[in-house]
């Protein structure tokens, strides 16, 4: 296989992940011969903070999921461009978008609508109504919602009332946003005595701290 043939293969297999053994062989041959794949240039453009707006717009339609996932992190993207990626991107693009703290509600709704990425569930800017929707529609994301520092107290209560998993209940116990009433529920209703006892300890500690703060 010549470098020219390798380049042809790579340009046909534009969805650079790389995704196939043939793509790997082509990449190795290209780089061994000192031939720079066009993909590398596009990837650098997606990463470069000073990439011109017109090139960012062009990269929105790049056939490579890897290029678009790098683009999803770019600080120069505008709201409509972010929304476009949220609505059209694959899993890697959506995961990268979910880490942005400046997402519009429309973009977050688009990400939450179908297989919400873990990064979105952990994003502290995610509003309560979307947290509740994700919990109801995608219970497999429970652990990710628990890792959100701004998890809604209502979400934490629903998790506590619908789970008997000891690890999940303990995570609820030690979350800063957990209500006293939720702690009291776990202290009484948790399926195992160890979790109930820990809940009582956490509840007592929280009440003591609250009492001390009121005395000041």
Describe the protein.
The chain is mostly helical and 216 residues long. It has a domain at 152-215. It is 66% helix and 0% strand. It contains 15 helices and no strands. It has helices at 3-12, 21-32, 38-47, 53-59, 65-71, 79-88, 91-97, 105-113, 118-122, 128-137, 142-146, 153-162, 166-173, 180-189, 193-215. Helix 12 (153-162) runs parallel beside helix 14. The radius of gyration is 24 Å and the shape is elongated. The mean pLDDT is 89.
Number of helices: 15
The proportion of strand residues reads: under 5%
How do the helices and strands follow one another from N- to C-terminus? HHHHHHHHHHHHHHH
Task: Give the termini separation.
Answer: 78 Å
Radius of gyration: 24 Å
Broad structural category:
mainly alpha
- Biggest sheet, open or closed, and with what strands and sense? none
- Count of individual beta strands: 0
Q: What integer is the average pLDDT? A: 89
The geometry reads as: elongated
**Low-pLDDT runs:** none
Question: In percent, how helical is the residue content?
Answer: 55-70%
């Amino acid at each position: 296989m010549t470098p020219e043939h390798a380049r042809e293969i790579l340009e046909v297999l534009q969805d650079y992940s790389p995704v196939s053994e043939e793509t790997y062989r082509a990449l190795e041959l290209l780089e061994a011969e000192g031939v720079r794949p066009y993909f590398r240039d596009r990837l650098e453009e997606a990463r470069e903070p000073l990439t011109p707006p017109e090139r960012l717009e062009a990269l929105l339609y790049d056939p490579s999921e890897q290029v678009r996932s790098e683009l999803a992190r770019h600080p120069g993207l505008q709201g409509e461009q972010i929304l476009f990626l949220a609505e059209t991107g694959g899993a890697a693009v959506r995961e990268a978008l979910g880490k942005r703290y400046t997402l519009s509600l429309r973009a977050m709704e688009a990400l939450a609508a179908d297989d919400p990425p873990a990064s979105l569930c952990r994003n502290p800017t995610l509003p309560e109504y979307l947290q509740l929707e994700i919990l109801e529609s995608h219970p497999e994301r429970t652990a990710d919602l628990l890792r959100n520092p701004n998890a809604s107290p209502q979400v934490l209560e629903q998790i506590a009332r619908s789970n008997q998993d000891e690890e999940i209940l303990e995570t609820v116990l030690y979350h800063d946003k957990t209500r006293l009433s939720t702690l009291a529920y776990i202290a009484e209703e948790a399926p195992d005595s160890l979790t109930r006892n820990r809940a009582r300890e956490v509840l007592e500690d929280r009440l003591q701290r609250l009492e001390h703060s009121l005395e000041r």
